Amino acid sequence: MEYLYGIIIIIGLYVILATSFNLIIGYGGLVSIAHPVFFALGAYTSAVLSRDFGAPVLLAMLAGTLVALLASIALALPSLRVSGDYLLIASIGFQLGILEVIKNVRFTGGPGGFTNIPPFLIREFGRESYVVLVLAVMIAVILLVWWISRSDYGRAMSAMRDDELAFSSIGRDAMWMKIAIFGLGSGIAGLAGSLYAHYFRFIAPEQFEILQSSVILTMVVVGGLRTTWGPVVGALLLQALPQAISFLHLPPSVLGPIQGILFTGLVLVFMFFRPQGLVPAKEVWRAVQRPTGKAGENR
Amino acid sequence: MAGVLEVRDLSKSFDGIVVASHIDLTLKSGSIVGLIGPNGAGKTSLFNLISGVVKFDSGTVLLDGSPLDRLKFHQRVRGGLSRTWQHTRLFPSLPVIDNLLIATHDYPGERLVNVLFGRRRLKAHDSVARDKAVGILGKMGLANVADDLVSDLPYGQQKLVGVARALMGDAKCLLLDEPMAGVEGQAYAAMQRVVREVAESGVAVCVVEHNIAFIRDLCDEGVFMFSGAIMARGSVAELIRDPQLTELYFGH
């Protein structure tokens, strides 16, 4: 059972990561590869605060979320002021740099990782309760991103993606909207990180490598950019795949490469045959609800 | 009388290519100024400089007496300086009505606090904005396509939507970049009527246009531009009659 719980939690966390990344790259149109490092910032902040500073786990998790959010704003502010493209370059540096720092300072446990992270809920209510917690957060995140995309804010995001100059010409500032989207998406990644830390109770830098970024991106692209269910389907599929391979009882030395080949192959196949992903997005913005008899009724 | 928009000694060059040279221009409340001149004369560039899409090298732009020089494009728009685009630049993923609704200058519906706790106020705000948008569309004869996607409309109607969108923000000054290009039939008449009505409501309007008939029928004053400089001003009829300007316009 413990094995199954672990898988469910990992899948749940990847759904959260993919959904929040969809907010950034799909709805916000922002290209970043630093999602794993915000995941890491959440995990490490929460782990360090709760183990070494005696902070209650719930508070530490909140702090983890907040640190990821603030770090993302600090990253986005200078790069988006220049132009959107700089965010990609800055995010590469940020991803590599922060991970290098984590590897080289003492209080994070260095390259060996950070152990003995205090558990949360498990001792009192059993592992099931943590599964419920992760799934609840997952559903909340899916609902939040769904609601944002269909709200007035989603309408504005849609317009900003359509034409940034026209967006300015109606008196609106694209930069702050991008920063808000990036901050929220990265903050959610931080929350996922702190949830990860207090279940598996061990974190190490290699879990947050730049490769993770391509895994998350693959989930969103294969699933379907700018859709509610795309990242969910993508995360399920791409997490189930390695599990399925592991049942083949292949020697560990070939398992890794085979996984890599499968992932890359999957992206290539999708690029060629189904660029819109498994769940195709509607290119038209749709509202949560409409006053009767007005726009959107008959579509 | 001081103008709503005052452009004083505005200059700009890109790597030695002059796009604006010591431009002085005053736009007054309720009057329509037509900017004419051959392609490449710097008419659209002047709009870009005034609205802040491109930064100018020297000079100043005043809106209601306060300088705009340090403000960004979107801030100038919020201050009451609105503009349209030669190639519409609408939001294709939104229906016509939402292209307008999104262009109001306050949007409480995008604040989470309001959505959670201020439903009634939001509803009131929404219906005010909706009435305004529907009213503007009605004037343009577009009420029946309010729910259509902008990309499904004929080009002439898209141009009208562009002007409608620019009117949602209560502009004091409106810059229209070739509003008639590609517009014919009913849309032509609607555009003419709307631009006149906008000016009559007290907005200072400036039009860049190659359609001389449109300019002649509508504009109180004409300004002739050539290679980044203003060559002549006066009534449009006078400018059209000037053989020298005609030669500049059509080339040698």
Polypeptide structure, described:
The complex is a heterodimer of chains A (about 300) and B (about 250). Chain A is mainly alpha-helical. In chain A, about 70% of the residues lie in helices and about 0% in strands. Chain A has a domain at about 1-210. Chain A has twelve helices and no strands. In chain A, helix 1 runs parallel beside helix 6, helix 1 (about 1-25) runs antiparallel to helix 9 (about 175-200) and helix 1 runs antiparallel to helix 11 (about 230-245). In chain B, about 45% of the residues are buried. Chain B is α/β, with parallel strands linked by helices. Chain B has a single domain (about 5-250), classed as Rossmann fold, CATH 3.40.50.300. A six-stranded mixed sheet of chain B has the order 6-7-8-3-9-10, sandwiched between helices. Chain B has a four-stranded antiparallel sheet with strand order 2-1-4-5, covered by helices on one side. Helix content of chain B is about 40%, strand content about 25%. The longest helix of chain B has 21 residues, at about 120-140. Chain B has helices at about 45-50, 75-80, 95-100, 110-115, 120-140, 155-165, 185-200, 210-220, 235-240, 245-250, and strands at about 5-15, 15-25, 30-35, 60-65, 65, 80-85, 175, 205-210, 220-225, 230-235. The chains are: A mainly alpha (about 300), B alpha/beta (about 250). Chains A and B meet through helix 7 and helix 8 of A and helix 2 and helix 3 of B.
Attribute tags:
heterodimer, A: about 300 residues, mainly alpha, globular, disordered C terminus, B: about 250 residues, alpha/beta, Rossmann fold, six-stranded mixed β-sheet, four-stranded antiparallel β-sheet, 10 strands, about 40% helix
